[in-house]
C-alpha cells in the first residue's frame, strides 16, 4: 500500500508523522516545500504536483484549511480524483460543510473512486502523538478495509455513518468546543478582575463541575494573555463555527448560544484573525 498525503500544516503534519513512523510507504505534497522536507528526511518521498502524487498512490489523504481548498485539490484534470488509479480511495481530514462532502463523494464515485471523510476530533498535539479521535464517514466496506492497516496508525478512529454523519459530528463538536472556549475566556477575565491567582484558579476549576477539555488546554495561556503564537488561529476557529452554524440553519434548528459564539469569533477574526483562537479574551 502506498499512501499520498497533501497538506502538511500543524494538523496534517501530526497525522502524516504517525503514518510514516509506522513504516508505510508515503509520498507527500504541500504548497510549502519546507513542510515536505521534514517528511523526506523521515523517509517519505515527495511529489512536485497534486497530479503526480495522486497517480502513484493507492490511498490519498488531504488536510487543507477551507472547502474551496479541498475542491481545488480534489477536482479537475489536475486534481486527486481524476488521477488516482481506478478503485483508488481518498480520505479527507479537512473540516468541511455537508453540502461539499456530499458533492465530493458523488464526484469521486463518477470516476470509480471512493471518498471518505475522516475529520479529527482534537488539536495538533493529539494528532502528533497518535491519540487524536477520527470520525469516519462514508462507505463502510472501505472504512473496514483500511481500519487496521491505516486508520488506527493515524489516530483513534470510530465509524460514524455516511459522509453527512461524519461531517456533522465534526461540526457539532467544533460548535461545542469553541462555544466553551468563549465562556472560558469570560471566566478567566472575571478571575483576573477578582484578583484570583492563576494557579489557584486553574487548580480549583479543574476540580469542579466547570472543568472542560478546552479549559485544561487553554486556561494557562489565556490567563497570561499569550495569543501571538497560535496553535490554531482565530480565522480557522471562526471558519469551523461558521460552517457549524450554517449546518444548523440548513436543518432549520435554532442554536442561540452557539450562534452567539459565531458572533464572538467573527468580531475577533476582524481584529486578531492570525492570533491564537483564545484571543476572544481580547474582545471582552
Automatic annotation (TrEMBL):
Record carries keyword Oxidoreductase: yes
Gene3D superfamilies: N-(1-d-carboxylethyl)-l-norvaline Dehydrogenase, domain 2, NAD(P)-binding Rossmann-like Domain
GO molecular-function terms, A-Z: NAD binding; NADP binding; oxidoreductase activity
Annotated active site: 170
Key words of the record: NAD, Oxidoreductase
6-phosphogluconate dehydrogenase NADP-binding domain ranges (all copies): 2-157
Domain 3-hydroxyisobutyrate dehydrogenase-like NAD-binding: 165-283
Keyword NAD (UniProt): yes
Pfam families registered for this protein in UniProt: NAD_binding_11 (PF14833), NAD_binding_2 (PF03446)
Name of this protein: 3-hydroxyisobutyrate dehydrogenase
Organism of origin: Bilophila wadsworthia (strain 3_1_6)
Amino acid at each position: 500500500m502506498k499512501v499520498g498525503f497533501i497538506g502538511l500544516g500543524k494538523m496534517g503534519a501530526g497525522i502524516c508523522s504517525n503514518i510514516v513512523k509506522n513504516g508505510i510507504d508515503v509520498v507527500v505534497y504541500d504548497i510549502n516545500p519546507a513542510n515536505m522536507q521534514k517528511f523526506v528526511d523521515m523517509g517519505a518521498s515527495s511529489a512536485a504536483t497534486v497530479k503526480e502524487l495522486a497517480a502513484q498512490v493507492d490511498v490519498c489523504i488531504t488536510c487543507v484549511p477551507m472547502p474551496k481548498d479541498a475542491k481545488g485539490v480534489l477536482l479537475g484534470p489536475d486534481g486527486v480524483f481524476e488521477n488516482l488509479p481506478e478503485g483508488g480511495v481518498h480520505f479527507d481530514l479537512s473540516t468541511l460543510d455537508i453540502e461539499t462532502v456530499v458533492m465530493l463523494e458523488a464526484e469521486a464515485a463518477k470516476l470509480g473512486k471512493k471518498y471518505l471523510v475522516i475529520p479529527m476530533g482534537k488539536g495538533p498535539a493529539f494528532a502528533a502523538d497518535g491519540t487524536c479521535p477520527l470520525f469516519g464517514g462514508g462507505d463502510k466496506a472501505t472504512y473496514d478495509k483500511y481500519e487496521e492497516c491505516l486508520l488506527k496508525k493515524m489516530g483513534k478512529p470510530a465509524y460514524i455513518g455516511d459522509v453527512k454523519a461524519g461531517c456533522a459530528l465534526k461540526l457539532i463538536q467544533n460548535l461545542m468546543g469553541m462555544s466553551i472556549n468563549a465562556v472560558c475566556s469570560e471566566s478567566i477575565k472575571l478571575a483576573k478582575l477578582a484578583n484570583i491567582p492563576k494557579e489557584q484558579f486553574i487548580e480549583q476549576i479543574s476540580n469542579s463541575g466547570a472543568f472542560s477539555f478546552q479549559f485544561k488546554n487553554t486556561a494557562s495561556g489565556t490567563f497570561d494573555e499569550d495569543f501571538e503564537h497560535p496553535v490554531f488561529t482565530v480565522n480557522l476557529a471562526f471558519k469551523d463555527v461558521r460552517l457549524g452554524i450554517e449546518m444548523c440553519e440548513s436543518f432549520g434548528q435554532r442554536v442561540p448560544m452557539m450562534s452567539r459564539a459565531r458572533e464572538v469569533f467573527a468580531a475577533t477574526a476582524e481584529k486578531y484573525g492570525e492570533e491564537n483562537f483564545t484571543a476572544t479574551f481580547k474582545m471582552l
